[in-house]
Amino acid sequence: MSTQTATRPSARPAWHHGPAWLWLLSFFICIGADVLLGRWVLLPLYIAGFYGGMIVIDLFTYPMLERWRAWLQPRGVWAWYFVEVGLMWIGTTIVLAIVGLVGPRWLEWSWQGPRALQALGALLLAASVLIGVWAVGQMGWARVLFAAALFPPGRGAEEQNIPQKLVVQGPYRYVRNPLYDTDMTLIAATALLTQNWGIVLLLAAYITQLIMQLRLEERELRARFGGAYIRYCQLVPRFIPRLTPVDPREIETPAAPGSAG
Question: Are 245 and 165 in contact (CB under 8 A)?
């Protein structure tokens, strides 16, 4: 879900309020409800459902990208949103909720650790959510929901009004995958805060899937954006942020022959 898609910066980059503030609101709702319940239920379920759904989506999308594009082209972007959100995300959440509350009850696979670790988890969760809001606000619904990869230029992007540019704004000026960074820290923070072994297993599964996915995703981005994406990769690290933001004009302008990359 961090498929980036604008090389030409505007004086005021567009801020996408919907996905950004909905992401923030979802955590207020989950944590507030768990405080009222007096135990961790909604937050671990939300994290497990959201990122478990992401694992399912990525495993069934990138390896079959061309098949999905052929199937979706006559049906449109809302068909993809139904499959992704309705079946993969919500379906995964329902399964995990049933298993967590009825079956092996993974919500009770917990340990008793020091309060300091829970406090660390709370701080890490807060920082991860806020950085996620910053990143999601740059992306917008179509990119966050993966539609930009499924409807490339000439194959539905124009008809479906899906942006096809490389985002080099906000946190994407420091690191190529800020959402993947915050995905991992959010899962780790939730594990520390809720002291739940099920979330630890989710983190291991997410990292394993991400290792497999990144190779396919970066190959797709190189094919779609060419030299701009290659230059972006040269200047901006994959996971560890640079100390100073890259100038988007450096991505637009290739390095002069003989200059350092």
Answer: no
User: Taking Cα atoms as reference points, which of 3, 4, 2 lies closest to residue 166?
Assistant: 4
Sign of CA dihedral 254, 246, 135, 34: positive
Residue 102: strand, helix, or coil = coil
Q: Is the dihedral of CA 141, 145, 146, 147 positive or negative?
A: negative
What whole-number distance in Å separates Cα of residue 195 and Cα of residue 192? Answer: 5
Structure tokens at 118: 């829970």
3-state helix, strand, coil in the chain (%, to 5): 70, 0, 30
Render pLDDT for 139-156 as a digit per residue (tens, 0 to 9).
988 889 999 889 988 777
pLDDT single digits (tens) 215-237: 999 998 998 899 999 999 999 99
CB 212 within 8 A of CB 205: no
Q: Which two tokens stand for residue 30?
A: 């989950």
CA distance 41 to 107: 7
**Residue given tokens 């950004």 in the structure block:** 20
pLDDT-derived band at 105 (thresholds 50, 70, 90) equals confident
**Phi, psi angles (nearest 5°) of residue 196:** -115, 125
| CA–CA dist 21, 36 (Å, integer) | 23
